[in-house]
Amino acid sequence: MSNEELLNSDILRARIMDLEYENLSEKEIKSEIKRIYFEETGKMLTADVNIYRSDDILKEHRKTNIDSGFDGTIIHFQSEELKINQAITITRGSELGEKNTWKPIDWTYNLIGIFVGGTDNQYQDARRFDDKVKNIIQNQRNTLPTLEKYGFGHSLGGNNISILQLIPDDKGELRFKNVYAINDAAPTAYQLAVIDSDFRWLINREYQLKNEQDIYTIPPDELKAFTEEYYKNKIDETTIHHLTAEEDMLYGASSVRGFLEIGGRDGFLDTDPIFSGIRELVDKIPDKDLRTIQMFLSNYSTTYNNDGFDGFIKELTGFNPAVVDSVLNARSDFSETVEKVQKSMNDLGKPFTDITEADNFWSVVKESVTLPFDVVGANINFQNELLSGLFQTIGNITELIVKAVPMIIEMTKKLPEVIRSVKVLYENLDPILQAFVDVGFISQIEKDEIVSYIKEIETSLVAIQTTIDESLDPSLLLALNSKDPKSQIEEIIEIVTAFQKIQSEISDIQEAFEGLKNVDTSFMEHFSVSAHAHGLDAVINALAVNKNISYKNNDMYMSPSGSGEIKVNISSSVRIYQKGLAITEEKESNVKKLKALFDIEYLEDYQNRQREIVTKIHTMESNPSQYSYLLYRTLWNPAGGYYTLTTINVNEQLFPFPSKINESFSHMIETIEGEIEKEKVLVKKIRDSIEELFSEEEKIAKMFDYQYGG
Amino acid sequence: MKKEADSKELPNTAAFQDEFTRSLLDSPEEVEDGHYLFESKTGGYSMLWPENAINEGPPFYQRTKNSFEKIIFNDRNEKENYRYSFSTTYSTYGESAIDSSLNLLSSGVSYFGEYKKIETDKTIIYFAKSEKSYEGAKGYFFFSYITSKESQKGLEYIYSAECIDYSNSNCDIDIKKEEQKALHYMKSVKFYKDE
After folding, report:
1. Cα three-residue angle B110-A124-A537, rounded to 5 degrees
2. In a mutagenesis test of the B interface, which of A58, A66, A204, A226 is the best target, namely the one with the most B β-carbons within 10 Å?
3. Is the pTM of this model over 0.80?
4. A361-417 pLDDT tens trace
5. Torsions phi, psi of A529, nearest 5?
6. CA distance A87 to chain B (A)
């Protein structure tokens, strides 16, 4: 067979890629590879399998450093006899989430990275890992044929592995003979422009860019065409193979500007016949709006935190909580400021709400100041206190307002951008939601609700901006200190009113958010269909050629012909049979050991002791005088001795080993042996019944006999 | 408000007038004629920063805590018809990983030749150059991988010089001078020792 591609079908590759998500030990990976290979091909994998993991290979570098989030595994198959020497590089390209989920922790972060450029760090780690393992393998043995390398990647790993192929190594040679990317995030021109200096120079020359950021202003179709032509001239694109579920969310997103189409794709997998995918929905978003979103995202890409998964989906559909986060955060600052101001006002002795008009307020002050001291003598102290309290309070409020100025400046800067983005997102949401209504995923009522909440948010944001523009000019606020008391108080009241207005608008926004959360549940569910299609499990099941076979958690399930309803987990049955058999064998050998131990420790030991006693008796009986010293011990005896022992006669009575002990032990052993026998029959029965169920499947019987190890 | 006041006192150079670039530089003090000192927030290295070069922020600026930093910055002058581009990538792969670092550098600039080894007091510089042409335009590339002799640190340094408009009569790039300049930049890179 001389080094022909071992993993030569999509389903094999998809199932092997899926192993990356299972957090297995090296030994387990090896046995899983053998199992999957056998389940799919019916043949034993005879080549030696070696596993290299990025965590170990890059260990030295990572010892003292934060890693890039890159994770990869290289599987090396070799056999001198069969002339096999090939290595599969699997890039995971992103931090892994929980076991058995497709949703890695920094998925969204990475996707944003790809969307706007960036993620160089993961690319570099991937290359260094691949280079290093290649060296290790090539330094091992030279009697093997030339090493052939293949690259596998799912999702963001697909992005990573494709870029490794697009940028050839230092001899200008392609890294992999073939690259297989499943539901991959395609590389973008923006990403490559940052990674590949050569390409960046060409883009700069071709489009006469003044700034690096200007790359985002190049018409996306033009940029895409230019980029694709450049890389298609540079590498043989037929070495890159894509496999995509039409419902895949990433594919849906990939009609968004900049995602490249390089390499071949043999149609699409239909992982869910009901769901038609979201690509056509995304296609409806106008390009100029996408640019706004893209620029907006680039601001978030470095500060992005981990709870952003929902954020991305909303980003894609045009609705992003992060947009309003900045406003919501400011809310607590506002409340605090307003609260303090209110408290200070209340210190005047009148409730804040009473003093809503400057004139009223001023009259209180005037009254206090102008009251002749001698008219109401008793009031003098009170007036003095009130007076000093008042100026103290005005001073406090002014100080607080001055402190609030940087926040207002910040908001004046940020608000127009936030409003613009919300508007863009809001407008884009409408056609998408309409499409959801059209296919019956959400009701018209739900759609209207979502739209009205977002409209509300926009209205509130605009109201906030207007309030700031009209009543909160930072320079006037700063000048507050130098004003006369009357205008100072008048302005303070106006400012506090403005603060309250903003505060109430912000609570409206928060209410709208709460409303959205309650309304969009079914809406989000449909995205989870798309998210599921993105996972390898869905792809693997769609790939199953035989309708009687399905997969779950990388286990193979079969249905006996004619009864599509019954599904038997073949992988697990084989595991139960093999493990069960191994366990009964281990028990049998333990019973054997136990029996031998009983013989040695009880029966033989008893006989040995009896023998020793008899021997001793004989010795004593034949040499009694030698035991005279025993008499000295108990009787007084002068030097030289009076007594001599002349005869010893032992009346021995030695009982045989108690038969009761022997019997109960034998009984116990019999019981255990009986249990083991029953287990054996049971395990065998599992095998027999499955073999009977699938009597037409030849490979079933073989599966039970082939040990994967591990 | 304080910031506003400050920016008026800042030097009238592109680097300090640009908000993002300013955030990367600590001091407006020139350490060398026309150059500031860039002291990396990774705590790993410092290098010269031309006073008129700017960085436009992410994704042209990327950093992973203390172990990775990539900066693409440009000094572009339309009037004098030149564009100097810089791309520096800091990582904690030092001399022991030099093969893979040079491999990465080579493929990033499509250069498949040898590197000249230049030693300074505390660094080793693997240096090479190349020329690219595109529709009448030329780009002169000088690039190196610099490793520290004292720690596992390295910096990929790519410098390129070109005219913006090659049809203009004031297009003159002195290749020898540019190479000297590039080498000077590379030799000025300092790595900090691990604490």
Report:
1. 120
2. A204
3. no
4. 445 544 544 444 343 344 444 444 544 555 655 666 666 666 666 666 766 766 776
5. -60, -45
6. 19
